[in-house]
Input
Amino acid sequence: QVQLVESGGGLVQPGGSLRLSCAASGFTFSASPMSWYRQAPGKEREMVATIGSINPFINYADSVKGRFTISRDNAKNTVYLQMNSLKPEDTAVYYCNGLGLYWGQGIQVTVSS
Output
C-alpha cells in the first residue's frame, strides 16, 4: 500500500522558515521522481519543486526560486522542502507527490504576522 505522509507544516511569520518532510512507503522511492505541490484557497494546485531520482534533476516554480530547496534521502525514503524567507503568498496546503501518481494528504502552511 502506497503512503506519503507529510509533516512539518504550521504557522510562521513572514520572513521565517519551515522544513516539510514527506515519508514514503509502498513503492520504489529511490527510483521515483518526487515533487511538492501546493494549493491556496480559490486557486489551482501548482507544482512547487521537483527532484529526479538518479543524478537528481531539480526544478522550481519561479515564485520560490532562491527561497525553497528540495532534497531527498533515499536511505530514509524521505523528501524534504526547506522553505526560507516565507511570504504570506506562500500560504497553502502543501502536497507531496511520488512518481506523478501518488499523493499525500496535504499539510497546511500559513505565513502570517
